Protein: Lytic transglycosylase domain-containing protein
Organism: Aequorivita ciconiae
Amino acid sequence: MKTINKIGLGLAILAVCAVSIHAVQEAPSDENLEKKLVNDYNIYALPLPEHIDFAGEEVPLHDPDIRERLDRELLVNVYWQSNGLLLFKRANRYFPEIEPLLKKYGLPDDFKYLAVAESGLEYTSSPVGASGIWHFMKATGLEYGLEINDYVDERYNLEKATMVAAEYLKKSKARFGTWTMAAASYNAGVGGMSKQIGRQKQTSYYDLLLNSETSRYVFRILALKEIMTNPQKYGFNFREKDLYTNIPTYKVKVNTSVDDWAEWVKPYGINYKILKIHNPWLRDTYLKNASGKEYFIEIPEEGYYTKI
């Protein structure tokens, strides 16, 4: 019994010594730690594309200022990896809706990246009150005929908001001569761009000295276009099943008041939350509609949510 205890004690001492030696071996020195940091995590400068355009209008990359501004936005957006992946996921849901609307209303396809730059393809409201995927201010929405009140806010209606964005941008293009300047005016306003053109005697976005936000705005759109067109080039890897998908819906016409949307949706097998996901332009739990205006409510196909 004593012999066994001695053997056991000896093995225990050897085990402790082995652990201690292993710990000493694994403890990194300053030099090893530096090597490990460098080998395990690297950040690379990004090669700029040889050429890039917005809506067919070439970006003057021979200008060092232009190259630096594009480089900045590429770096910011490539190395914000979590946000980048979310943009790819949402784009798979919303681009198939936005692309035909842009074509229908006469805008170049590249303007879908303006929507990405504005809202990240979310039905959000900015700190200053710009709302929806296209981020209209209330005054602009009303000016272009959108209904905005306590019950309905059509800035959150993707088709109607895209139509208004197209009208605004086409008017800006007619005024300033290029789609690039039209995009810049979407951020700075038509009046703001006109003022700077008058002050600086220049008509190209790339030749104007603008406020910080507008100065970066078009370059952010360009960077998003470059990254989202070439995901693997910039280290974004995902499978088709990782992306968000568009849920098929059908339309139900409503031309009366609705006392309670939560009750109204019950026959369609969904709840109020699902109704709002597909109709974010409905802004309250009920609808006043004394005029009998026609609204079209998007309802997900029967049983879709139970299938997933």
Remarks:
- The longest strand covers residues 249-254.
